Amino acid sequence: MSFTLRLLVSRGGSYHGRLLLVWSQSVRSLSSGPRISRSLQESYRLLQLPDEGSSSPAQVKEAYLRLAKLYHPDSGVATADAVLFARVEEAYRAVLAHQSQVKQPSREKEADDEDEDKFRGAALQHRHYLSYEGVGTGTPSQRERQYRQIRVDRASEQVLNYRQQEHERAAAAEGALVERDMRQRSRKIKITQAVERLVEDLIQESMARGDFRNLSGAGKPLNKFEHNPYADPMSHNLNRILIDNGYQPPWVVTQRDIREATTQIRSRLLDGRARLSDPVTPRESREWEELCASVEEDIVKLNKLVDNYNLIVPMLSMQMVHFSLSREIECATKGARQRRLQQQTERERERERRKEEKKRANAAAMTKNRKHGLVSWMQNLLR
Fold it and tell me: Could you report the per-residue pLDDT of 237-248, keeping only the tens digit for each?
């Protein structure tokens, strides 16, 4: 092209050379313009848009939505086609990418030109660098972008500094909490030591008054224990001293109360059922129901006592279950016959014991009468 242009300019006049030069530049600009690939042309044609790329993003979106309503597999229409919808979606993305590539350079160039014209007419040349804190080089738009990046970096640095300060503040607060816990622990230790000193002083005063002289083991050494060599000797001796002086733990006292209450309830039921005939009469049935009602109240109180015992017992295997009225009535019914036999045996033994006592009393009376008669005969004889 350049060789042909030189030849025509050398042969023709200067005017014709200028015309040919202008024509060659226009042809070069047309030939060097952006060309659309076949796949992109297919995307435009699939979206029913012109190939020149003159459509706005709104028109492209409208075309995509129109086709999506026709071919989307979930639309429920007769024209639904998943494969065709996938092609439409791919074409929509390709068109959007092409429009963004085409329009972004032109927008940047227009913005640069507008900024240059604005600053050229608004401020003098030597005052351009007074804006943006004197940061950046190049045109005002380029300097503005550089200044924005610097502000972003500055904001990121401030965020990092703020986070570092927050971490330091949290560490300081944690240290304050640890220090407060240490102060509280030391205060508890001081209180414990003060209580121990007070108890020691009271013990010394009691010893001076002679309160410990009346103890059963006063002045005698403590007997060593051999049944559990792994136990603490001091704890064992203290517990033994408490037990020897009548002290019992609360759970032991509660266990004893439960045992006594259970024995009393079972004895009442067993004796009440043993007094009834078999089978029971209506009057006896009413008496039995009244007895069961009164026992039910006692069992409710007993179960509350069991709950309190389970809360304070030291071992889980020593806990108790609730007592049931129906189970106790069943046990009383089964043991009523044996109870009747025992009562009958006891009554016979009591009857025999009374007979023996009566015989002994009669024999003693006869002996006494004989002695009295003998004494009276001797007295009469001596007279």
Answer: 777 787 787 788
